[in-house]
Please model this.
Amino acid sequence: MSEIGDIEPGRLGAAALAANFADAHPPLTPAQAVVEADRCYFCYDAPCVEACPTDIDIPGFIRKIATGNMRGSAQTILAANIFGGSCARVCPTEELCEHACVHTAQEGRPIMIGALQRHAVDWLMARGIAPFHRAAPTGKRIAVVGAGPAGLACAHALALLGHAVTVFEARPKPGGLNEYGIAAYKVPDDFAQQEVAFILSIGGIGIEYGKALGRDIMLESLRGDFDAVFLAMGQAGVKALALAGESMRGVRDAIDFIAEVRQAPKPAVAVGRRVVVIGGGNTAIDAATQARLLGAEDVTIVYRRGPAQMTATEREQSWAQTHNVRIRHWAVPVRLIPGTGARGETVAGVEFAGSMLNEAGHLVLTGERFVLAADMVLKAIGQSLSPEGLGEHPEVRGGRIVVDAERRTSLPNVFAGGDCIAGADLTVVAVQDGKVAAAAIHRLLCGGV
Ligand SMILES: Cc1cc2nc3c(=O)[nH]c(=O)nc-3n(C[C@H](O)[C@H](O)[C@H](O)COP(=O)(O)OP(=O)(O)OC[C@H]3O[C@@H](n4cnc5c(N)ncnc54)[C@H](O)[C@@H]3O)c2cc1C
Ligand code: SF4
Model:
């Protein structure tokens, strides 16, 4: 019988960790990029563009790669999506543009749109080229809350139009989940910070770090001090399992574990030998896979519904399975089992009850019970927005700020976007929200279209 509470840093050596956390999808070479670009039909009314939440002119940027116009290609991408570099790395392209590509239906091998997008944007960023220039100052001041993809996309679009933007960010670094959440092997080499520096180089954007709405600043005062406010604070709260013992050693929020993997040197991150991850989204997949890559021997994701209901895509699920993460469906945790390890009380396992959908489509428990032994339990059952802590706030429904098509909230001159409003929780969607809100704020403050 192995020791209970076996949670240690440095399960693998530095070389193995470096290899495990290297770029998951290495970039195309220039020759590969041209060959791939030449496969594109440059479709009229291209379905790939329809499928892109930020409306990037995909055939347009691919044609420019094919003809050697790399700067033009990157500019086409970035004009529609200033986070084109990170979206090229993190977008579920297999469900968006590449799914819609006509080559997918024809031969099951879409154009590698994400890889080509990365090729073009990386080319431009590596040369330090500033593709856009600010309009003359308008004298208007806008406050943005949150320096994640939604907040910075909005800030960039507003700065480009000549407005002065102040971003209030609770954390010490910008980037939001690009910096603290996305799996380390998707954005290695400090790419998130390089991209933020590139975005801020437009000028006109100041960031105040360590300033949290509801703690250090209040919405009432932002509305008094600025011409408009854009709320983009994501889903900062974490949902609890509502089981006894959640504060026990070894039980952790998956999102905190992931943030530690992103911020600390990999050999310093402690991981259990046997890890159970509870949840069915990106957070569960990324926590489980990264636990394996840190050297955990036995990692199981347990999800209360079936594979089709997991919000993690099929590709993400098989990515985890390729890394020997087991996924068990249709089970709900009912008890955290305590044990006594070398360092006192610690989690020793989780008891699960089988689950199923009844005739009315509701999730119910079956009589089946099983126990998984665990040194570490990672909770990934979702994040939440807690408006109560924010003081004055716009209308919230189902834990999301209510907005109209222009991302206007119920409060005058207050807009919102990204994960704090309803919709797919994806980087590319957050960027589009930021863009749409910036255009609406500009119309509000300066008129015109
Ligand atoms: C583990 C994980 C993996 C993911 N993987 C992918 C992926 O592979 N591909 C993909 O497309 N999407 C992925 N996503 C989703 C994606 O990261 C988000 O949809 C996106 O980051 C949302 O952007 P945002 O700007 O709305 O919020 P965030 O990125 O969360 O940024 C919000 C910012 O606001 C700050 N903030 C919070 N509260 C306050 C406050 N009160 N005052 C001031 N600042 C505040 C935060 O510190 C943060 O910087 C993943 C999400 C998670 C959790
Ligand atoms: S659908 Fe495919 S082939 Fe057509 S323009 Fe888009 S990437 Fe090219």
Summary: The mean pLDDT is 95.
